[in-house]
Amino acid sequence: MALTPSATRYLLAIYQLSDGGHAVRSVDVAQELSVARASVVKMLHRLVADGLIQKEYYGNIQLTPAAFGKQTESTPYLPSWNTFSPTPCR
User: Fold this and answer.
1) Of 86, 65, 90, 88, which is closest to residue 19 (Cα–Cα)?
2) Any idea which of 41-45, 57-61, 78-82 has the lowest mean pLDDT?
3) Nearest-angstrom CA–CA distance, 21 and 39
4) Cα separation, 42 vs 20, whole angstroms
C-alpha cells in the first residue's frame, strides 16, 4: 500500500520525535503536528495495521523496520531514514 501524504507526515513526526529510536507518546505526536489526539489515534491504528509502527494499548510508539522500506517516488525526502537503524521492537 502506498503512503498517503498524511501517513508520511505522521511517520516523519514519529521519526523526528524518536531521536534515534526512542519510543514516542501519541500526545507528543499530536503536539508536534498540531492535531487532536483522536486524529493521532485513528492514524496510529492504520499505521499499526500496515505494519509501519508498533504500539501497545496505552503504550509508546516505535517505528518498525518496514517503515524505513516505504520510500517511494512521492516521498523523496526520506533518504535520511536509510542511516537510521531502529532497535527491533519487542
Assistant:
1) 86
2) 78-82
3) 23
4) 25
